[in-house]
Amino acid sequence: MRRKLIKTSTVPISLNHLLTGQLKYLNQHFDVIGVSSNGEDLKEVEKREKIKIIKIEMSRHIALFKDCKSLLDLYYFLKKEKPFIIHSITPKAGLLSMIAGKLAGIPIRMHTFTGLIFPSRTGFMQKLLIGTDRLLCACATHVYPEGEGVKKDLMNYNITKKPLKILANGNVNGIDVNFFDPTLYNDIEKNLIRSGLHINSEDFVFVFIGRLVSDKGINELIEAFNKMAEFHTKIKLLLIGPMETALDPLLPSTIKTIEIHKQIISIGWQSDVRPYFAISDALVFPSYREGFPNVVMQAGAMGLPAIVTDINGCNEIIKEGENGIIIPSKSSKELKEKMELLLTDKELYSNLKLKAREMITSRYEQKLVWEALLAEYHLLEKEYVQKRS
Fold first, then answer.
1. Looking at the DSSP assignment, which residues form a beta bridge with residue 4?
2. How far apart, in whole angstroms, are the C-alpha atoms of residue 23 and residue 29?
3. Residue-wise over 289-309: b if at least 16 C-beta within 10 A, else e?
4. What integer is the mean pLDDT of 144-171?
5. Other C-beta atoms within 10 Å of 385: how many?
6. Arithmetic mean of pLDDT, 117-122
7. What is the CA radius of gyration of the chain?
């Protein structure tokens, strides 16, 4: 009889996009159940991964009444299903799943920290977030940072005394290097895409993919590009992602520049970002904080060098002077200088581009991550059985 494995995330988009293919792979070895809040993404997960899904509403933000209800719903669900392993990957789902899992007596309770919020907060909010992460870890049996940067933060803030293990070379799902492959797009296709976006063949295209919010460094990016464009007419900035105005909105001046600047092209969220990587020359990702950003790996797999900030994940994927450039966060001046460097130093650009894909495929190919995760599950299963015997 196969054991049950439950994977939880706060919102369904995380199960859908962060764990693409992984759940189907694991379902060959366990009876996998995906748990998250309701949404269209859950239907996609069920259809693509061919697993059972359960809707349990969870709020991404602090909402005491809703959180208590979610905790009870998770507890009763776990008591009914009796899984052997519960594994969470996002903050609120992690906190609720680990508490509910402990109360329900689930043998193996795993949480992966894909990113930490508290290092970028101060005062009471930081103390509150540290407290909830400590509670999460106290209720978990095993804790996994997604990368070295996250591991260091967990240790520096004394979040847990439990062993912290990074699986494979980091990241929760690795990257499908056959899917993210620049050879899938020929010159005719790329020219058609460029033409549709009014990008000339001689334009150097910087691309950003992600939410258009302050924490992603968009204010600095727009400021840097705006100044750069005063002297360089054959450049474009391609922005791909939703603009979120409710939380962490951009400066009004940034929004206005995006709307009126002739060399900035903002096309919103796209379900398939590969065509836009294919027509771009470099990724710019000036985020303030990350866990282990998929977009940087995706860009590398598509053969793009990247300019990233010196933050968790980014400074592990990108090696300075090898497959990209690392800059301090929140510095539009530094960002502008390095963007101009990529544009003008042809030899540097060629060398970075030459190594971009190989440095991703050799370290983060999806199969490596999946096999490491499966091996960890089997190891924990074996250790548990030995302790009980």
1. 31
2. 10
3. bbbbbbbbbbbbbbbbbbbbb
4. 94
5. 10
6. 84
7. 22
381: helix, coil or strand?
helix
289, 215 Cβ separation under 8 angstroms: yes
Task: Pick the closest to residue 87 from 318, 346, 376 (CA basis).
Answer: 376
pLDDT, position 289: 87
Phi, psi dihedral angles at 143 (to 5 degrees): -125, 135
Helix-strand-coil split of the chain, %, nearest 5:
50, 15, 35
- For residues 43 and 36, what is the distance between their CA atoms, to the nearest angstrom? 11
Structure tokens at 94: 């992690």
Q: Which two tokens stand for residue 20?
A: 């693409």
Nearest Cα neighbor of 293 from 115, 159, 120 is: 115
Full strand arrangement of the beta sheet holding 142-145: 52-55, 31-36, 4-8, 85-88, 108-113, 142-145
Q: What is the pLDDT of residue 388?
A: 87
Q: Tokens for 296?
A: 């940087």
| Tokens of residue 81, six digits | 């299903």
Q: In terms of Cα–Cα distance, which of 251, 299, 247, 238 is closest to 274?
A: 299
DSSP assigned state of 215: G
Cα within 13 Å of Cα(83), Cβ side = 28
34, two tokens: 């995906």
